[in-house]
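A reminder from the course coordinator: this example appears on the midterm review sheet, so study it carefully.

Given structure:
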């Protein structure tokens, strides 16, 4: 929860966001916990100048969003039947627009919690939910301003969101938490300290590359598997996929570069390329012989 508390403090001090609610519960730990579980919804809406609050609906917590025309949005999971999933992480979302003084003003803007709705394919996806809200509020002229895209969400906050949203998944699919055991490379370091010739260093390098290449290739194959991951609406961005593929290639080419470096050393030792002569070493061309002297004009040759 410490990370969530840090995230809450960070968004409190961000001037680009709409203010937090003004009521006594804001400082209560239980409210801050609920708020942190809904930051993935409230933060993008507050970036649009919309004030948000957390309330309890019929059977689950909801996000209430105040709009400039005194109407409001209700964002929450399906209330009937109630869900046993944790707050902020339902199977789907329903967004309605309502007005306290005009019951006729009621509309469903988004519903991914009802199986026969077209939005149902998005499930608990937040980007598609925010996109639907943007579209409808822009049509109504109620979108105060677009989010400041220059204010990038800090990596620590993004990873806090991910830890929260992946908690249930990791409970079903536990992964190792301790670092994998490191290979024992002490003999290589000891031998390298005693090596005196390029041939001896090459022997160490070649053996090191031989025993580590399968491990590195194994890791690279798994990174390629991550790059190939697809979901129905969650998928890698083109930039993320490019970076993952580059990472896998870099791992696979690491030992190739080690082998190239080893060959460069061996080539310098056993098959050096003669250096071109420098200017100082080039022979000075001899001057051509002086031409024979000719008689002066008006002087007779001696007999």
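Designed residues:
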């Amino acid at each position: 929860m410490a990370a969530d508390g840090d995230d809450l403090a960070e968004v409190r001090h961000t001037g680009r966001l709409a203010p937090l609610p003004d009521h006594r519960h804001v400082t209560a730990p239980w409210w801050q916990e609920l708020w942190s579980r809904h930051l993935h919804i409230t933060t993008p809406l507050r970036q649009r100048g919309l004030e948000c609050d957390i309330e309890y609906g019929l059977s689950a917590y909801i996000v209430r969003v105040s709009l400039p025309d005194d109407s409001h949005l209700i964002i929450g999971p399906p209330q009937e039947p109630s869900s046993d999933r944790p707050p902020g992480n339902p199977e789907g979302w329903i967004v309605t627009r309502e007005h306290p003084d005009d019951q006729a003003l009621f509309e469903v803007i988004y519903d991914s919690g009802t199986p026969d709705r077209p939005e149902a394919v998005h499930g608990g996806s937040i980007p598609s939910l925010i996109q639907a809200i943007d579209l409808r509020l822009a049509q109504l002229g109620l979108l105060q301003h677009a989010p400041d895209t220059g204010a990038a969400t800090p990596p620590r906050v993004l990873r806090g969101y991910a830890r929260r949203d992946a908690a249930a998944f990791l409970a079903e699919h536990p992964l190792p938490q301790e670092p994998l055991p490191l290979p024992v490379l002490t003999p290589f370091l000891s031998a390298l300290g005693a090596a005196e010739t390029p041939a001896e260093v090459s022997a160490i390098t070649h053996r090191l590359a031989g025993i580590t290449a399968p491990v590195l290739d194994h890791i690279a194959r798994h990174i390629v598997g991550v790059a190939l991951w697809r979901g129905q609406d969650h998928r890698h961005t083109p930039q993320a996929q490019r970076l993952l593929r580059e990472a896998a290639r870099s791992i696979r080419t690491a030992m190739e570069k080690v082998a190239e470096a080893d060959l460069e050393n061996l080539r310098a030792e056993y098959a050096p390329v003669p250096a071109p002569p420098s200017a100082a070493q080039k022979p000075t061309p001899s001057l051509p012989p002086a031409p024979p002297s000719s008689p002066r004009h008006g002087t007779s040759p001696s007999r």
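The beta strands are 52-56, 61-66, 72-76, 94-98, 106-111. The helical segments are 2-12, 29-37, 39-47, 126-140, 155-172, 186-194, 198-227, 238-270.
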